Amino acid sequence: MPISRRELLRGLVGAGTVLGCGADGGADGEDGTEGGTDPDGSSGSSTSTGGDDLPSYEYDGEPGPADLFQHGVASGDPLTDAVILWSRVTGAPQGSVEAFYEVALDPAFTDRVAAAYVETNPDRDYTIKLDVSGLAPGTTYYYRFYALGRTSPIGRTRTAGATVTRLRMAVMSCSSLAHGYFHAYRRVAERADLDLVVHLGDYIYEYGTDEYGSVRAYEPANEILTLADYRTRYSQYRRDPDLLECHRQHPMVAVWDDHEVADDAYDAGAGNHDPASEGSYEERKANATRVYAEWMPFREGAEGVLYRSLAFGELVHLIILDTRHAGRDAQVASAFDEEALADPARQLLGAEQEAWLAGELAKPGQWKLLGQQVMVAQLRLGENPLNLDQWDGYPAARQRLFDMLREHAPTNAVILTGDIHSSWAFEVADDPFGTDYDPATGAGAVAVEFVAPSVTSPGFPSDTADQFMTTHPHLKWGNLVDHGYVVLDVTPERLQASWWVVADVESPAGGVETFVGAWAVNDGVVHLLADAAAADPVADAPLPAP
Questions:
Q1: Is residue 373 part of a domain?
Q2: Range of the domain at 113
Q3: pLDDT one-digit tens code per residue, 435-477
Q4: Which CATH number is 261's domain given?
């Protein structure tokens, strides 16, 4: 029986595993997600054989549109031997489209290590998502895609190291397109020495034009509800040149917050969803979940399960939590409802994720980094919690978290947080207002927490961080108005977080960057120390993607 050229060339690179949905929640940071069958042939992975026998792209038809790869390329979830690669073909004829990818050790692609044909189709919104394995640890790679005679931009990615003595990452969150321009993404893209970017959610916003911000109009103009709506909104975001460049230069480890579905979401509903006028929340959440999997370069586990972990040698165990959609109970309506707040059965992570987290905390890793969405540290207005959407609204769940940290990560636990559109540095304790915690030494603290500012989303009306510090002994520093990102620099001796803010997000010509503060924690001591300067960049960083 004759075989096609594509089938022949696929055979040249050997049998590949497929990026599929497994039965277990949470991808293991060391082993990744096991491959399964690909139901629609739209995404897959290839184990490279290396050498000059790899196939090359061939096409003899009419070329596709010049902007076929208008959504660029992206990568994510690096393991020691694998990484997710992503792209999309836009404006292709209806039906399946044959594409091709190649990976090399140099931006000129003279030393290729992987290449294969793949397919995409309308069922995946013409996205291409590959789990490319057989790679070397701690190595920078360059990659690109081809389809219909067109070539994508070149992307750069990096695998996790097997032996790591220094790790650098940017931490980001909250990019409301309607509130401005994504200068922070551009500044991060320009940092060639970063190993990865961690995005803690609110990657998109669900609102309609002028409903929350009016600097830029949304596509579609309405609040997004349907499968087509969510796909159109991601398509608009991923055409933004600054976000395109961030994805092109760095692998991203991303997790959602509420706005990827709807504001103030919990497991079974959201504050910004009215079933009477907007229909089934379950259907809306399913639409958002499907599109997030199509458009984001993360390694998929069970459907809708985004919590997972990644290891970077024995230095860092990065644990990504979902504090929004994987078991959270609805928020309590009032801080005065003390009985509801004190309910020991109330869940923020859900029982299944809590059990998974306990197992992850018991795994090796000198520094345990918990990437999650909502503030863990206590934040009060007078004697009452300021925001019941945060862990303050789930005190029993927070105490269980503290108990797990105390048991499994007694010294080097670092919480990374987004959501609140502002910057904070906390020491986290059971009762930071009581006598069991000493703010001068950190005694009694169980972890430190670094809160990343927003890319564009509006913060507090004014910078009242000093006022919070006078009443919150565990708060060491804050900036409540500026936009930007955090650079995390990790070595065996210490971990530093430095905050960088960008100016004029409402102007496309803005984006001047300023260093505003740095706080560090030494190995084995849960206590924040102010640093006068950010850690030096890595010398001789790998070449950016051209």
A1: yes
A2: 16-158
A3: 999 999 999 999 999 999 999 999 999 999 999 999 999 999 9
A4: 3.60.21.70
